[in-house]
Amino acid sequence: MVPTPVALGLNVCEKIVVEEGTKNVTLVNCFSKMFVDGFPTGPQPFAVHSTLRDGQGRANINLVVARSDTHEVVYSQQGTIDFPNRLTEVRTLFRLKKCSFPASGRYVLTLLIDGDWVAQREIDIVTRGDRA
């Protein structure tokens, strides 16, 4: 794809609701810190949303979740995305159901289009006893 699209943000939330008629998106309980019972965690369901623009044509899209300290990839989800023209905003939606975290700490979520960096977001994963 030429050119690489621009992300208008990257949101991490509990769930995403898409209204059937209008296709409007509601992000529910956005967060930057996830509380878990212990480590390693079981699969943690959550969602990631981004709006992209300035892309053209079909591209490969990839969301990668990695530990900030070791860069170990703990989850990756791939697909394709179509940009009808450079003026159209295209929403991306990832519903993660099988992402597990091996240890507490900071994790980096990176959105890639055709292997090129588009957006990034960090979240902290901590045990429920560490609420502060």
The mean pLDDT is 95
Point out poorly predicted stretches.
none
> What would the principal axes of the Cα set say about the shape?
globular
- Order of secondary-structure elements: EEEEEEEEE
Query: Measured on Cα atoms, how large is the radius of gyration?
Result: 15 Å
Strand order of the largest sheet: 3-9-8-5-6
Distance between the termini: 44 Å
What summary fits the major beta sheet?
5 strands, mixed
Query: What is the overall number of helices?
Result: 0
State which percent range the strand residues make up.
Answer: over 45%
The helix content, as a percent range, equals: under 10%
Structural class by secondary-structure content:
mainly beta
Number of strands: 9
Oligomer: single chain
Description of the molecule:
This protein has 132 residues and is mostly beta strands. 0% of the residues lie in helices and 61% in strands. The chain is globular and about 50 Å long. The N and C termini lie far apart (44 Å).
